[in-house]
Amino acid sequence: MNTTNKIKDILSIELEKRGLRKTIERYKILEAIYDRTDHFDVEELYLSLRKQNFHVSRATVYNTLDTLIDCGLVQKHHFGGDGALFEKALGFRQHGHVVCINCNKILEFCDPRLQTIQESVGNIMDFNINDQALIFYGYCKDGCNRNLSDDDKKPD
Amino acid sequence: MNTTNKIKDILSIELEKRGLRKTIERYKILEAIYDRTDHFDVEELYLSLRKQNFHVSRATVYNTLDTLIDCGLVQKHHFGGDGALFEKALGFRQHGHVVCINCNKILEFCDPRLQTIQESVGNIMDFNINDQALIFYGYCKDGCNRNLSDDDKKPD
DNA sequence: TTGTGTGCAAAAGCTTTGCATGTTG
DNA sequence: CAACATGCAAAGCTTTTGCACACAA
C-alpha cells in the first residue's frame, strides 16, 4: 500500500475515534498536504486545491486543518510573519526549524539533546509537556546573497 | 541611578545610534513595559497607558514596539494564540518558555544546553544564528486544576 | 525650519461565525 | 432522517497605512 493510502487509513481511524464524518473534503485536503514537502499557509493550500479543480471554501480548509492537527496528522507553526504555516506531521520526528530572516528559507533539524532539555524543564517546572517548538532565526550563509552588516540583526 | 533611568539612558543611546527622535511617547511606553513583569499584548499595554492618563494611539504603540524591539529592549513572542505577546528584554538572558495549554500560564526557564544546540545547528546548516525561540506546551500539574484526560493533548 | 513621529480613521489581511444547504451515518 | 459538515458572505481581530498636524533637532 502506498503512502497516500496509508495516511488516509490513519485519518479514517482517527475520525472514527472522534466520531467525525468521513467527508471527501477531509481526505482531499489531507492528500494535498501530503503531496507537498514545504511549509505552507492556508491560502497556498486553498489555491492548490482550486487549481486541481477541487472545490472547497476557505472556511472548510481552516476547519479541516484544525481537525487534522487534532488528529496529529498536521503541525501548525508560528514563525513570526503574519499568519500560521503548516506542514504534514506523520512520520516526521519532532524537529526544530531554522529560519532565514533575509530570504525566508526554512530548514529543519533534529537534535536529541532537545528531548533531554524538555524532560528537565518538565520536571523542574512541574509540567506535563507534550509539544515543543524550537526555532532559530538568522541568516543563511549561501543562497540568499546577503551582506552581513551589523544592522537589522533582530528578527521580530 | 535607578533601573528606570538606566533603561531610559540605554534607549537614548540606541535612538541616537539610529538617528531616531527622542519622543515622549517612546520613553513613556518603554517605562510602561519595564513596569510590568508579565507577557502582554498590544492592547494591554495600550490600555495601561490610557489608564495612567497618558494619551497615545494604538498605531504609536505598534510603531514604538517595533522600535524598541529593534533597539533590543523588548522581545516579541508568538505562542500560538492570536496575536503576539511582548516582554522586556534587557538584563534577561535568552530564555525558553513553558506554556500551559489549559490555563495559559507562561513560565520561563534557562538551559545552557540550548546554546550548544544552537551552535551545532548553525554549523551544520551553515547559518549565522542570532535569535532563538524555544517553547514547550503542556499542562501545569498544579494551580490549574485540570483533569489530565487523553483528549485534547495537542496545542496548535 | 525641516522632516520625522504621532493621531486618527480607514483599510488590509487572516481567521471565525451564522445561516442555509448538502451529505454522512 | 437527524446530525454534522460545507459554502458563502459577513463580521471580528490584530496590525498597517495615509494624511494632516505637531514637535524634536
Would you write up a description of this structure?
2 copies of one chain form a homodimer. By secondary structure, chain A is α+β, with helices and mostly antiparallel strands. Chain A has 2 domains: 1-90, Arc Repressor Mutant, subunit A; 93-156, 2-Layer Sandwich (Dna Ligase, domain 1), CATH 3.30.1490. Chain A is 40% helix and 20% strand. The first copy, chain A, contains 5 helices and 5 strands. In chain A, the strands form 2 sheets. A 3-stranded mixed sheet of chain A has the order 4-3-5. In chain A, strands 1-2 form a two-stranded antiparallel sheet. The radius of gyration of chain A is 18 Å and the shape is globular. Chains A and B meet through helix 4, strand 3, helix 5 and strand 5 of A and helix 4, strand 3, helix 5 and strand 5 of B. The structure holds a DNA duplex (25 and 25 nucleotides).
